[in-house]
What does this fold into?
Amino acid sequence: MQTNRREILTSLAGAALLGSAADRGRAQSSSAPRIRDISVIECQPAGARLSVVKITTDQDGLYGYGCATFTQRADLVKPAVEKYLKPLLLGRTTDRIEDIWQTCYDSSYWKNGPVLNNAISGIDQALWDIKGRQAGMPVYQLLGGKCREAARCFATVRGSDPKAVVDHARQFVEQGFRDVRVGGGPARTRGEAAANSQPLHDRPLFDRGEYFRRTLSLLEFCHHELGPDVQLATDVHERLEPRQAVEFCKAAENLNIFFIEDPLSPEDLAYFGQIRQQCATPIAMGELFNNPHEWQPLIQNRLIDYIRCHVSQVGGFTPARKIAILAETFGVRTAWHAPGDLSPVGHMANVTLDVISYNFGIQEWMPFNPHVLEIFHGAAEMKNAYLYVSEKPGWGIEIDEKAAAKFPFGAETGPRKNLNGGWDDLRLPDGTVIKQ
Ligand code: MG
It folds into this structure.
């Protein structure tokens, strides 16, 4: 009895010692790899400035990559990772992803901003990559495996000349695409402005009435020319006034639309109910969301058809998977944001979610610039309008860091070479600045 009591006390003392170490999350199995280094690989092989977190462990050859790309404020992500998250995480084991995610999320007290969310995403995705490499499995297998073979994608055709848009869309249709997003790029120069909207400034111009008419007319023309087998979408990019957005969605209702994207801004979420009440046009929303309070009401009130968050903007793979599951409960499908300002690592996280989520809707796809593929080896493969997830362990992507170093963050590529990821301000004819 005495011995047993002594053993129990010894055991409790040991547990207390373990507890003091656990303040840095070290109470796990001694065989679990520990974080030895965290760095950010930055490169600009095409227009977008890509940031990818690399976590190196204390086990030989075991590391992982996570996308943390926020091209409009790219220089801020690296210090957020290396100055704040790295000291917090060095020495921890890599096997408690949820615990590390919550620790990072709460570590700044103030949270849900795009810089910090992207920094956390880089850590989170790198940990999933490590776990997959450890298991010798692609990440999708760690989550239960596929429920479809590949992710159906939509193609994008920019431009406002209807005939050129249809010609380009037909090229995608020949490649197997049945879903094409058209329009976009509505900013115009003074010389291109309609006679009745001559601007009072020399900045990129956006005339809401003109955009409304031209885009609707473009959708009508595309529907007429491409026929019922091709579904259409357009991205309003939150540039209309709320009332115009409601009217636009109603007007597009019978044009074989697979979604109208971002008809309203995150500041105008309350208007989504009006769109829902007045038409059956499918709605996609979410690429600007950073905060659960933004997507929760739209999903739980079934006010959108597609949740369209940018996975790194919401904090990475872990929270995105939770969003997908929440959306499934309410019949909302996924359409993760994936233009060029996302690394192939981030793309693979998207495609992984696509193949494991029953409520997958559609995936945005754009071909990578060949310079991007010089750096990132193993990107998701596109075949006949379907994206295929990697079958290699983790995300299945290796980064050639020497190749990345050949494309450092450089001169900005926007029309004014500003420091905004190439994005310029956009103004109404009278000079009022509006949302990008
Ligand atoms: Mg968009």
